[in-house]
Structure prediction request, 480 residues.
Amino acid sequence: MKKSKLIDLLKLLSKSELRDFEKFVASPYFNKDAKLITIFNFIKRYYPEFDSKKLDKTYIVEKIFPSFGKDGHRKVNYLMSDLTKLLEDFFIQAQLGEEQFDREYLMLRALQKRKADKYFFSLVDKMKTHLQVEKENMDYFYNHFRLNHQIYGHPSTNRYQPHINSLTDAIDFLDLFYVSTKLRYSSEMINRQWGIAEEYEIPMLEAILKNLERHPFDDYAIFGIYKRIIQLNQKNDHQVYLELKQLIIDNFERFEKEEQTDLIIFLNNYTIFCIPQDENVSERFDVLKFSLKYDIWTQNGTFSYHAFLNFINIGCAMEDFEWTNQFYEEYGPRLRDDLRENTLLLSRAIISYTQEQFEKTLELLNFIDFTDINFNLLAKSLLLRCYYELPDYELVFFDFCNAFSQFIRRNKTTSETNYHRYINLINITRKLFRFKTEKSVPLEKIQAELENLNPVANRQWLKVKINELSGSKVRQTERG
Prediction:
């Protein structure tokens, strides 16, 4: 019973939601079976963990429903199934309370069904007003289409008159919805191609782009934005990037939080993969600092630890330690409670490493709890780089390379992408160390291998180390 869908869903409820669900179960409109109230009142005692030994069907039959007799387990299963359906209905009702348009749209259909034309058209006017202040996204166009579809389908619409606005508007907004959706997901595919080396074929994209040249939908900034994202994938043109960046900045507040986040992630990825290294750090810094003006990295009141570490890394890359420490102090308390300590320790370690305080970095990393795979990989990659940099750590370095490789190969929670990223990092770093100490592998061969590797973690750090060794090699040649 403790591993049932019912218990899993009940664990998702907050305390206030649990109280609301109790009222929901007790409502004769939603529930006409008093036994569901009884079993729920028993189960809720063990919220939020639901790990009591009493949550057992045999116990429930004996103590709660002794009248069930020999058929008790089957009847308890039925009750659990019915209570699960009630909980799913509760989730739907709760979600509907947050979806204004969907709630009004259902009311519109109910009024049409009951031939309440006066209130139907009054609600239409109200919904049009609400849509005028909606954020610009796929749902915006889709909801306009749905509303006009409902108006055109109303029995009072004279389909023999010329120029029916609801018909033409339905067609127009259907086109806008389709094109915006196609462009949005095409852009997401492009973003994935850069980040995780996936390749996609995108049918009809060229036809849509050609149509956009004839009908650019200038009233909606989102089309110009996604068109430029796709153009950048087809040809790396810095002028198009600057136009895209300005369009995003000028229209940022027109978009929902999810879309805002996606657009910033795209700009960030583009600067990493498509702008030369001597320019991309400052450009990334500008993009990420701009995003901090908006609350896009916060969900459910907590700041994303992935984003937090990105900000720390980019601040360190800029060597703007004053800004980085200010960010650390301001946003650190907003991290999720169970992730805060490790995130802050890892951040301090990154700052110390950037300042070439390698011994201090090792000390900080010793305090990190490695239960989270992402923390583990980030921390171990930092350890690897510290051992590479420190003198007299040759044995420790090679032992750690072996241990790190074993960890990645044996850990079942490591994604395939991360597996290759970090294995490649270890292999190249090991070869660079051997070149540094033994000159056993030609540096040009290591450099060529790195250029052909994808994916690889800390690629830019590896390039810097190769450049350092190349400079050392040149100096030695000159002395020779």
